[in-house]
């Protein structure tokens, strides 16, 4: 297709984007993307020109065009030259910050364009973003969110910028009075921390192998103080969750002695959120990260808090997973991850807490406990090796339980035991007999349907 033909066709499509039918708008967006497959440079140019020439075009339509631009940039990032990348960057930045108030879809679409460009032209995008991220003044909320998303999408490209970004951002935290701004800063700190940890984990492939964790320790400690001691006390649930999501990865970047000093306050503070939120996935995920950080520095202050930790985690694992919400299932996985950390650092305390609960007749307690036992048999096999006789003997009462759900859970525990050499131990014979008995049940029984 000739350039003039593409421009004409793109202009016709762009004029049709204001159709009142949302389906037509979606089809126009798809057609622009299809046109861009054949002539990406011309299609991008047409979208840029249209947005610049139609200043009064309403934001829902601008959003649709920006979505098409993001698809085109993502699909053809390798074909963009620096001049085109800069033009798209300036356009998206202008669109993203045009409205001072939050216009989520529009600003998110523009931000997504910047993130797409930043996967290859991170310096170009950062030059523009940093011009709107100056010391002494709160930036546009979307600028902070875009920095966060860039850190997540281009780790190697963004981490070298983070030292200067953090030094500029820290004074801004005290200036942020609105929850939306605070949530954006929390999101940024979360993604910055995750990116730093990923960068350090792949240091042999990183562009600058001299980067060290302690480079960020002082800044993270300052940010931690504001998030934990001030923002976590907010009555706004969304902000509390944003804070706790950030604290998990941030805990790995705190100086070891400071983390140790904070744990007696940090862990109860996070556990208290279980009572304040119905959706507890983010709390459990953060808790797991904090526990891993504590173990990695050889924490001694973890031990006095084990009882409250185990009780809170056990209560979570005993919640029925009957909800259709994927977050409920994800929460259970994160809770089990916490149990793995505790099983590896304090196996005696864990089993002293867990195994007596198998003698409890309550269905939920027994099911939850069996689930944890099965999990730690698999995930902390070396620590459980010398505990095999105790674990086997604790199964005496669950083997007698006639509840079909409990029977299924018992079979799953025995399956895990079989993989780790439990059945060769004294008491293992009873487990094999139990499996044989269940296999001998007639097909029409209700129990049979559970396996």
TrEMBL record:
Source organism superkingdom: Eukaryota
InterPro entries registered for this protein in UniProt: ARM-like (IPR011989), ARM-type_fold (IPR016024), HEAT_MROH2B-like (IPR055408), Maestro_heat-like_prot (IPR045206), MROH2B-like_N_HEAT (IPR056282)
PANTHER family: MAESTRO HEAT-LIKE REPEAT-CONTAINING PROTEIN FAMILY MEMBER 1, MAESTRO-RELATED HEAT DOMAIN-CONTAINING
Gene Ontology CC: cytoplasm
Protein name, entry field: Maestro heat-like repeat-containing protein family member 1 isoform X9
Boundaries of every MROH2B-like HEAT-repeats domain copy: 254-445
Database matches in Gene3D superfamilies: Leucine-rich Repeat Variant (1.25.10.10)
Presence of the UniProt keyword Repeat in the record: yes
Presence of keyword Lipid metabolism: no
Signal peptide per UniProt: none
Pfam families the UniProt entry points to: HEAT_Maestro_2, HEAT_MROH2B_1st
Domain MROH2B-like N-terminal HEAT-repeats residue range list: 32-251
Swiss-Prot/TrEMBL keywords: Repeat
Source species of the chain: Mustela putorius furo (European domestic ferret)
